[in-house]
């Protein structure tokens, strides 16, 4: 596989098809875990690891898994990796485990992971699937951290749990609540939309050239014109 193709697959999920800010997936964990940068980063890394591992295994088994039970099989694979990640976080990062709570286990039903399994890993090679998982995971992590930075700095006058003294009198507590999260999320989507689609798309010109039915359409048009006359 060419290096440019590899790079394109990986970079696709970071901005062009960012799962949070472009595809609008994973909204629930995005709003729930972005009140703190540390929690947002932890959720992003956990999801990234599950994405890469599940994409690789699903790609390896894509010719073995029967088509009529593929979704249940994908969910079982994803659930297995989520359980492993959950146990590792619980053992080595108990503070993060307590901060993420139920949302760590709910990575199993994160539509980003199941969506990439169905749309990409089940149709592509192991290398491409791993790079896709890496790109989507990085994009998810960056989006969460960006939203969390705005919400925590402006809403709680802190960063990663460390207080920012000069902002303590100017914090906007609305931003760390659910409605404030929706506002920040919407503004981030608008910003990325402006950066990626800032220029108005050119209108496509359509022609009958090359269409196998062009002769029939032309004959029918002429016949209708004669009848009106």
Protein described:
There is one protein chain. The longest helix has about 30 residues, at about 125-155. β1 (about 160) and β2 (about 160-165) form a beta hairpin. This protein has helices at about 5-15, 25-30, 35-60, 70-90, 95-100, 100-105, 110-120, 125-155, 180-195, 215-229; strands at about 160, 160-165. The model has no long low-confidence stretch (mean pLDDT about 85). It has a two-stranded antiparallel sheet with strand order 1-2. It is mainly alpha-helical and about 230 residues long. Helices cover about 65% and strands about 0% of the residues.
SSE topology:
Layout (H helix, E strand, L loop, with lengths): L2 H14 L10 H6 L4 H24 L9 H23 L1 H7 L1 H4 L5 H11 L4 H31 L1 E2 L2 E2 L14 H19 L17 H15 L1
Antiparallel strand pairs: 1-2
Helix pairs in contact: 1-8, 3-4, 3-7, 3-8, 4-5, 4-7, 7-8
In short:
By secondary structure, the chain is an all-alpha fold. The chain contains ten helices and two strands.
**N-to-C SSE series?**
HHHHHHHHEEHH
Q: What Rg do the Cα atoms give? A: 23 Å
H/I helix tally? 10
Oligomer: single chain
Which strand order does the major sheet show?
1-2
According to DSSP, the number of beta strands is 2
State the helicity in percent bands.
Answer: 55-70%
Structural class: mainly alpha
End-to-end gap = 62 Å
Q: What profile does the largest beta sheet have?
A: 2 strands, antiparallel
Which range does the strand content fall in?
A: under 5%
Mean pLDDT figure: 87
Principal-axes shape call: globular
Weakly predicted, low-confidence segments: none
């Amino acid at each position: 596989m060419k290096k440019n193709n590899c790079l394109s697959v990986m970079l696709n999920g970071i901005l062009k098809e960012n799962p949070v800010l472009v595809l609008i997936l994973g909204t629930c964990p995005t709003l729930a875990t972005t009140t703190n940068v540390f929690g947002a980063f932890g959720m992003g890394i956990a999801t990234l690891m599950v994405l890469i591992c599940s994409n690789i295994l699903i790609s390896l088994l894509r010719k073995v898994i029967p088509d009529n039970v593929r979704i249940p099989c994908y969910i079982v694979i994803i659930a297995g990796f989520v359980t492993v990640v959950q146990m590792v976080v619980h053992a080595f990062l108990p503070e993060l485990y307590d901060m993420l709570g139920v949302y760590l286990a709910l990575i199993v039903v994160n539509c980003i992971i199941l969506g990439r399994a169905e749309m990409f890993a089940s149709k592509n090679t192991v290398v491409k699937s791993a790079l896709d998982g890496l790109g989507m995971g990085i994009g998810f992590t960056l989006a969460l951290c960006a939203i969390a930075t705005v919400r925590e700095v402006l809403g709680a006058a802190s960063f990663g749990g460390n207080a920012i003294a000069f902002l303590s009198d100017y914090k906007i507590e609305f931003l760390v609540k659910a409605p404030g999260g929706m506002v920040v999320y919407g503004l981030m989507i608008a910003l990325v939309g402006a950066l990626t689609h800032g220029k108005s798309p050119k209108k496509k010109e359509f022609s009958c050239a090359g269409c196998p039915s062009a002769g029939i359409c032309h004959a029918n048009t002429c016949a209708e014109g004669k009848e009106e006359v």
